[in-house]
Design goal:
It is built from eleven helices and eight strands. It has about 270 residues and is α/β, with parallel strands linked by helices.
Length: about 270
């Protein structure tokens, strides 16, 4: 099974059809996608809205069918204070139209109890459309570490509500392979891979995670140990945005092609050991 995908954050607003084509050209069967482009300043590509453009949705579905690519992760389902997750119902309908198999959520609402309630509502709405839900561990958010994520998953109490493990977020939040090895593998629903220094070289963690990650094998994260203890049937999304390379004019196909090959080499090493 081809497990690798090209994540939304890695392509800096590349239009949807081109995103699909890039993933397919690199031999990847998966992408993650949101419904609108992120407003980069300055922008790298023209803005798009799958929410407001039914023709673009139809074209994207056709492109995915033709190239054998699917959206393994739908983005944009965050929980925020003062907002009601039920208002995302129309977006979930569009995700279903696009064939999304799971959606990801984070919480920016400091109220953990309310976050759990909102997660449960989202998971129920998604399940009604045949879509699973993952919750992402990310330092600086309400679900900032593995222990909190495990607590939340238990509190929501649904087999279709699981944890997204992002290698950079996992390590920077204080966990690693030994911690994951003790977790029920059924609780993990999706993997995002990137590399990074163990000690931040950029003061703003959000800026580093969104704009300047590293290709697997070029940083200091214990990626082989982490991937070795994670389930082998999960999609691995490559979340390796490198804005400095974009600004230097390095083609996305080159950047992400290097990341794909490095990750395949890493997985091959793990398979050979085991």
């Amino acid at each position: 099974m081809e497990r690798l995908g090209i994540e939304l954050l890695s392509v800096f607003g590349l239009p949807p059809i081109e995103h699909v084509e890039l993933a397919a050209d690199l031999g990847c069967r998966h992408i993650s996608s949101g419904l609108t482009s992120f407003p980069y300043d300055p922008p790298f590509y023209p803005p798009f809205s799958l929410r407001d453009d039914p023709a673009l949705r139809r074209e994207m579905v056709a492109a995915m069918r033709d190239r054998g690519v699917s959206i393994a992760l739908g983005e944009g389902m965050s929980v925020r204070g003062g907002m009601e997750i039920r208002d995302k119902s129309a977006d979930l309908a569009i995700m279903e139209e696009l064939g999304v198999t799971r959606v990801n959520t984070v919480s920016l609402d400091p109220d953990l109890g309310r976050s759990i309630d909102q997660f449960g509502i989202l998971a129920e709405m998604a399940a009604e459309r045949g879509i699973e839900t993952t919750v992402e561990i990310s330092p600086g958010t309400t679900i900032g570490d593995l222990d909190t994520a495990l607590y939340v998953v238990k509190a929501v109490g649904r087999s279709d509500f699981r944890i997204l493990v992002d290698t950079m977020h996992l390590v920077r939040s204080g966990s690693g392979a030994e911690d994951l090895a003790s977790v029920d593998p059924n609780v993990i629903g999706y993997i995002q891979v990137s590399d990074a220094p163990l000690v931040p070289v950029i003061d703003d963690y959000m800026a580093e995670s969104m704009f300047e990650r590293m290709i697997p094998g070029t940083g200091e994260l214990p990626l082989r140990d982490i991937l070795a203890v994670l389930p082998r049937d999960l999609v691995i999304g490559l979340e390796v945005p490198v804005r400095s390379a974009m600004q230097a004019g390095v083609p996305l196909s080159t950047q992400l092609g290097n990341a794909v090959q490095a990750t395949r080499d890493l997985l091959a090493q793990i398979d050979n050991v085991n």
